[in-house]
Design goal:
heterodimer; A: alpha+beta; eleven-stranded mixed β-sheet; six-stranded mixed β-barrel; 22 strands; about 55% helix; B: mainly alpha; 2 strands
Chain lengths: ~850, ~120
């Protein structure tokens, strides 16, 4: 027949409808086509046919018929409770029957999930921050972006002057709370002084925020100057009682406050952290805070503004007037600032702001932590995926049967997801146990740990469960899809057909990823430990042994020197402004010849200090011993000469420079040494001698034993009421690098987790392959293969995978580590061949030991035993 | 609720009833097109039929294979009892409204065709 309906349209229709029952529709269209042929041209009829096909394709009729066809005629279309029960039963049987794999999976997942639990616990607690304020939706903090020259920084603080301006000019604000956190002093007591930290606040602080008063009236306690509200804990510490209203507190700086109220201990899940509140009017009445208008707007550290807007507030209007104020307040100044409203709910986990008022969690470190948690979790999920797919042979018969009896894709998928989720729920129990163990350790590593509570609550447990469900889904989705897609005929007929399909490539990729990760951690561990040793043994260019640093704490340097010099075991006493090698301040140097000024690092010390630390003079001499009335000389380093374009050290001697208004003469030139921490390179530097800047006495001692007691005795003779505080110079320098120890601990722990997860996965795989290959091995043995050749045969694939992993991990790790180390410290080690080799050896030993233990067992089996059956 | 069927649904139901034993896709379509002088797409028709079947107003069964449609069977339709009841409800409702508003609906010597 020549005139047939368009073939393509017909095909398209059949293809689109899959196996839905569309016979009648197809027939209708064909009949209509032949009817149309009698009425119109062939072309038109064909066009009509196309129209009909398209109109059907997009119609509900096809959609519904297709939906019906998804289910097998015998299958129950809805999710049936009885089936779920069956899935669970089969799952439990499988878990029990293949205990070995279940244990590997559960342990791996538990380890992998534990780190994520920390993250979730932390996140859940932090997200509860400041939830107890009833006005929380309408409270905003004013934050600022401060620009000084080219430098732009975001601050949590904002100038108090802004609050005053808003109060005077803007009407839409219900309450303004001004806070100043500079209350940071010591309470004078009979025996020892107790540190007290708190805020100067407006009386509105207690009405805007929900901090409960135990005693006192919220509206009056902070209205008068010099009144203080103290929290119960601190009251107990200072007075041994919480009934303290009317008592006075004297601070070391002479301020006296009257206690007008006692606050219940504030919840720790708040971004405020204080022991006492003092009325803001106290600040206004003390003269020290009077600054010029410009200064008020440009120097506003420790000043915060919170506003309470009326309900259904219009924060945009306030923002607009803030923009206006910022424009008007900084006419042609070096420093400018813009202000923004930050809702209270954004404060807890917001952007990283400087000068934060209390505990501060920034989002970026959370993201880093999240990535790490994911890097540990992923390998564990991969283990599950890997082992499940590898074992698909064992399950294919079951699936084939289920499908033949009417099980459809969705149901098989559901079955395997149920099974995986069951395993993750069991793992969750393990993960929570690990979580309990590492929780305390983890908290000690955090700076803000006092504001974090990681105990289990209903909320965290719910989140943990959700997380386990999610992990189960993630780990199980791939095997479940794979099983659901199995062809029942092939699955039932022969095993060899599915063997090719058992996802060998995917499994290899996943294994390589796991080992690449472990390899990365091992290298990092080795490089960090080398970096730590390198920093400790770095030749800073000066002597730091046998020098005891005593904090002067305001004592007069010359009296201290005289007192300490009397001690026999003290060789000499020098004075300095800090710990050399850790910190230095900076100032500007004006050359007297030209108008140029350059930045220079400075350190205050006397001649004895330079002598004791054995710094090398290239030219010139040390500070003279004689006391002087006026600062006269400086001792500079090589780098200083470079920036001043002086070529020979000898030329520098006698040159004068203007520093801080003093004309100072270069008296000596020192060889370069690391005056500040290894994080920054050696730059232009000079020693100055100004006794008023001395804060440390540096005692060169002969023997450590007993000497300290003697020195302390001498200190007590000064009778200034201060506690003796002294450390050895070298200890102090070494301690500055102790953060590497924390880093090593973290990386080591994470590496251990990653490695153990990978090894567990490997173990699972090896056990499986050895099991399936027992017969092959037996036949080989009968034919005369040696034990060692069989071990090699079974292990060499894994060996290759590990080498691949190392090859992939190496460039990435090298790049990341280089970036990280150079950001962290200017003087750093670089990854060398030996690091790589050592990591590779560790990885291979661990991996091959795992593989070998199983292959060895298989190789030793008696062929008669295994070949006997079947 | 009375009158839960739409205009096109009612049309399809009545056409199926009028065609009797010969009601299948093509005849229903042709009949409606001829009688109402309007073009209906096969997709829209079958969407409606599927909906009516879901609501339980019509029943369907497959006929015997015949030569002219490439050996494909026809799907015949028939009103169910519920469908008949629904049509009666609809008619009653209309009649009632017509009776009430007869005076106002009078056209100058013209009959109303279609709806």
């Amino acid at each position: 027949m020549k005139n047939q309906p368009p073939r393509l349209a017909s095909r398209l229709f059949e293809w689109y409808c899959e196996n839905a029952a569309i016979e009648d529709l197809h027939g209708d269209m064909e009949e209509l086509f032949y009817l149309n042929l009698e009425k119109m041209s062939e072309r038109k009829a064909k066009l009509k046919y196309w129209q009909q096909v398209l109109s059907l394709l997009f119609s509900d009729a096809i959609k519904k018929r297709k939906k019906k066809s998804v289910y097998h005629p015998y299958s129950n279309t809805s999710i049936n409770l009885a089936m779920i029960r069956n899935y669970l039963k089969v799952a439990f049987r499988n878990i029990y029957r293949y205990r070995y794999f279940s244990i590997v999976n559960v342990v791996g997942l538990a380890i992998g999930m534990s780190i994520s639990l920390l993250l979730i616990g932390m996140y859940s607690y932090i997200s509860s921050y400041d939830d107890f304020h009833t006005n929380k939706e309408n409270i905003y903090r004013i934050i600022s972006t401060r620009t000084e020259g080219l430098e732009e920084n975001d601050y949590a603080s904002a100038p108090t002057a802004l609050a005053d301006k808003l109060k005077a000019e803007y009407v839409g604000i219900k309450e303004i709370v001004r806070i100043n956190k500079s209350l940071n002093s010591e309470v004078v007591l009979d025996k020892i002084n107790i540190h007290l930290q708190g805020y100067y606040v407006d009386p509105t602080f207690l009405t805007v925020f929900n901090f409960q008063l135990a005693q006192g009236n919220a509206s009056t306690v902070l209205s008068k100057p010099n009144s203080m509200v103290i929290i119960e804990k601190t009251a107990q510490k200072i007075f041994n009682s919480t009934d303290v209203i009317g008592k006075t507190i004297e601070l070391t700086d002479g301020a006296i406050f009257e206690i007008t109220g006692v606050l219940m201990n504030p919840p720790i899940n708040s971004h405020f952290e204080f022991e006492a509140l003092v009325s803001f009017s106290t600040l206004a009445s003390s003269e020290t805070t009077l600054k010029s208008i410009t200064e008020q707007w440009t120097q506003y550290n420790n000043q915060y503004i919170y506003v309470l807007l009326p309900k259904n507030n219009d924060s945009e209007k306030l923002q607009a007037s803030l923009d206006q104020i910022s424009k008007a307040s900084y006419p042609k100044q070096n420093v400018t600032a813009t202000f923004h409203l930050q809702p209270l709910s954004d404060v807890k986990l917001g952007p990283d702001l400087r000068n934060s008022i209390g505990p501060n969690w920034d989002l970026s470190s959370f993201i880093i932590f999240g990535t790490i948690a994911l890097l540990i979790l992923l390998p564990a999920c991969f283990n599950y995926t890997n082992i499940s797919i590898a074992r698909s042979l064992k399950r294919s018969k079951e699936i084939g049967l289920r499908k033949t009896l009417g099980g459809v894709k969705n149901q098989i998928f559901l079955q395997f997801i149920t099974e995986t989720i069951l395993i993750t729920l069991i793992s969750l129990v393990g993960a929570i146990i690990i979580f309990f163990f590492i929780r305390a350790q983890f908290q000690t590593m955090l700076v803000e740990s006092s504001a974090l509570d990681l105990s289990l609550t209903g909320k965290t447990i719910t989140l943990f469960l959700l997380f386990a469900l999610f992990t189960g889904f993630f780990a199980g989705v791939f095997p479940a899809l794979y099983f659901a897609g199995l062809n029942p005929i092939q699955a039932l007929k022969s095993q060899s057909a599915t063997r090719v399909l058992s996802g060998l490539r995917v499994r290899k990729v996943l294994t390589v990823f796991q080992f690449a990760l472990s390899f990365g951690f091992i290298i990092s561990l080795i490089v960090f430990s080398r970096q730590y040793k390198y920093s400790l043994n770095f030749d800073l260019g000066f002597q730091k042994e046998n020098i005891l640093d005593v904090e002067l704490q305001g004592a007069d340097p010359s009296t201290v020197k005289a007192e300490f010099s009397k001690i026999a075991s003290v060789q000499s006493v020098s004075m300095s402004s800090g710990i050399l090698g850790l910190s230095s301040s900076s100032t500007w140097v004006h050359s007297t010849d030209s108008n140029d000024s350059t930045e220079v690092n400075q350190f205050f010390a006397d001649g004895q200090f330079i002598e004791n630390t054995k710094l090398k003079f290239l030219s010139g001499k040390n500070f003279p011993d004689a006391e002087w009335k006026r600062e006269q000389y400086v001792v500079v380093n090589e780098e200083f000469l470079k920036t001043q374009k002086i070529t020979a050290p000898i030329d520098a001697i006698g040159k004068t420079f203007l520093i801080d208004g003093n004309e100072l003469e270069v008296i000596g030139v020192l060889k370069n040494f690391n005056y500040t921490s290894l994080r920054s390179p050696i730059q232009s530097f000079l020693f100055r001698m100004d006794p008023s800047r001395f804060t440390y006495a540096n005692l060169k001692v002969v023997a450590a034993n007993g000497t300290i007691a003697e020195i302390e005795g001498a200190w007590n003779k000064l009778k200034n009421g201060k506690k003796f505080f002294a450390r050895f110079f070298d200890d102090e320098v070494n301690e500055a690098y102790s953060f590497y120890k924390v880093l090593l601990k973290i990386v080591g722990f994470l590496g251990l987790l990653a490695l153990s997860i990978s090894l567990l996965g490997l173990l699972g795989m090896v056990v499986y392959t050895s099991e399936t290959k027992t017969k092959e091995v037996s036949i080989r043995k009968v034919m005369g293969a040696s034990t060692s050749s069989i071990i090699v045969l079974l292990s060499k694939d894994y060996f290759k995978l590990m080498l691949w992993a190392a090859a992939f991990a190496l460039p990435v790790t090298t790049l990341l580590l280089d970036e990280f180390l150079s950001n962290m410290q200017y003087y750093h080690v670089t990854i060398n061949f030996w690091d790589v080799l050592l990591s590779l050896i560790i990885l291979l030993i661990m991996g091959l030991a795992t593989v070998g233990s199983q292959t060895y067992k298989t190789a030793l089996t008696n062929p008669a035993e295994t070949l006997k059956c079947e | 609720m009375k009158g839960y069927i739409g205009e096109f649904e009612e049309l399809v139901l009545l056409t199926i009833a009028s065609l009797g034993e010969d009601a299948y896709g093509v005849t229903v379509k042709e009949d409606i097109e001829k009688r109402c002088d309007r073009n209906i797409s096969i997709g829209a028709l079958h969407s409606t039929i599927t909906r009516l079947e879901e609501k339980g107003y019509i029943k369907s069964w497959l006929g015997e294979p015949t030569q002219e449609r490439g050996g494909r069977r026809k799907r015949y339709f028939e009103l169910s009892h519920q469908g008949k009841v629904e049509l009666h409800n609809m008619k009653d409702l209309r009649d009632e409204l017509w009776k009430l508003s007869k005076a106002r609906l009078a056209l100058a010597g013209k009959l109303i065709v279609g709806s």
